[in-house]
């Protein structure tokens, strides 16, 4: 069990590349605050993602496209303070990197400066390769995100699996483009398992899957999905629940309310 506790040294990209070379799996979870990051780091999670999924699960926006750079920066700084030796990746928000290489580098450097994150992540394949190249030239570590890209949900006409049939060649081209541009890691989202396995084997960089089967080098989930928080929310097909935080928290809140209403809390031992 001790092997799954917090790593004694900082996790770097090179460590994850070495895991890929040795066929060792590793785990990523999203985190959006200090306490959660500290908890996941203590559990031995190698990589934490400050995802723009915070738009949905933290701020209550309908899509990820509504979250701002400032909102991401506040969350990212808190996560880094709690992350211990875990590697921290942070998403570039929609609208902050698409216009030009200069805009992209400016956004990424500001976000890293304000948060202390180790790596930035941006969505898109071939079309975004020039941005990745510019980020690498600026000295930043970069994670690409291909397949289904939530920031493009409207352009993709909804939440659909990518890389089926004729579009498989496009995903191959996207993976090759972001790798050649210098991406240090790549996320494959909602990609057929056989194609994801094929591309993972061919990709020199570590590949993290979400809805891409078991053949990728690592897996990532939004922690609220992983732990069923809030309880009973709809989860995507690729999500497995590993806990019931929502139900436990609701029960704790109900017990607290009951104790207050009945005068059982605070008891003498809680009083000065």
How would you summarize the topology of this molecule?
Elements: H1 13-21, E1 26-30, H2 34-42, E2 47-50, H3 54-57, H4 69-82, E3 87-91, H5 101-115, E4 119-123, H6 129-137, E5 142-147, H7 168-180, E6 185-189, H8 193-202, E7 207-210, E8 218-221, H9 223-226, H10 245-262
Parallel strand pairs: 1-2, 1-8, 2-3, 3-4, 4-5, 5-6, 6-7, 7-8
Short description:
This protein has 272 residues and is an alpha/beta fold.
Explain the overall architecture.
Helices cover 39% and strands 14% of the residues. The chain has two domains: 229 residues, Phosphoenolpyruvate-binding domains (TIM Barrel, Alpha-Beta Barrel); 27 residues. It is globular, with a radius of gyration of 20 Å. The mean pLDDT is 94. Helix 7 links the parallel strand 5 and strand 6. The chain has an eight-stranded parallel barrel, surrounded by six helices. Helix 2 crosses helix 4. The chain is built from ten helices and eight strands. With 272 residues, the protein is of the alpha/beta class.
**CATH architecture title of the largest domain:** Alpha-Beta Barrel
Supply the CATH superfamily name of the largest domain. Phosphoenolpyruvate-binding domains
The biggest sheet, with number of strands, parallel, antiparallel or mixed sense and barrel status, is:
8 strands, parallel, barrel
Number of strands: 8
Rg, nearest Å: 20 Å
* Amino- and carboxy-terminal Cα gap: 40 Å
Strand order, largest beta sheet? 1-2-3-4-5-6-7-8
Compute the number of structural domains. 2
Q: What's the helical proportion of residues?
A: 25-40%
Structural class, from helix and strand content? alpha/beta
Work out the helix count.
10
Taken from the alpha-carbon principal axes, the silhouette is globular
Share in β-strands = 5-15%
CATH names the topology of the largest domain as TIM Barrel
Element order: H for helix, E for strand: HEHEHHEHEHEHEHEEHH
Main CATH class of the largest domain: Alpha Beta
State the low-pLDDT regions, or none: none
Instruction: Give average pLDDT, whole number.
Output: 94
């Amino acid at each position: 069990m001790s092997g799954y506790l917090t790593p004694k040294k900082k996790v770097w990209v090179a460590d994850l590349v070495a895991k890929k070379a040795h066929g060792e799996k590793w785990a990523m979870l999203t985190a959006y605050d200090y306490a959660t990051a500290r908890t996941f780091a203590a559990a031995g999670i190698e990589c934490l993602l400050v995802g723009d999924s915070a738009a949905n699960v933290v701020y209550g926006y309908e899509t990820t496209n509504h979250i701002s750079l400032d909102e991401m920066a506040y969350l990212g700084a808190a996560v880094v303070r709690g992350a211990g030796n875990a590697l921290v990746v942070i998403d570039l928000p929609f609208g902050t990197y698409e216009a030009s290489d200069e805009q992209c580098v400016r956004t990424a450097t500001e976000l890293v400066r304000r948060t202390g994150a180790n790596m930035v992540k941006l969505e898109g394949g071939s079309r975004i390769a020039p941005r990745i190249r510019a980020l690498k030239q600026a000295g930043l570590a970069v994670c690409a995100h291909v397949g289904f890209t939530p920031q493009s949900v409207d352009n993709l006409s909804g939440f659909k699996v990518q890389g089926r049939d004729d579009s498989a060649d496009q995903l191959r081209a996207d993976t090759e483009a972001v790798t050649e541009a210098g991406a240090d890691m790549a996320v494959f989202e909602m990609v057929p398992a056989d194609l994801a396995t094929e591309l993972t084997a061919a990709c020199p960089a570590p590949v993290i899957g979400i809805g891409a089967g078991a053949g990728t080098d690592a897996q990532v989930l939004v922690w609220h999905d992983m732990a069923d928080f809030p309880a009973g929310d709809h989860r995507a097909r690729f999500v497995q629940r590993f806990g019931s935080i929502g139900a436990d928290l609701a029960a704790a809140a109900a017990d607290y309310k009951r104790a207050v209403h009945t005068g059982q809390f605070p008891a003498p031992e809680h009083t000065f």
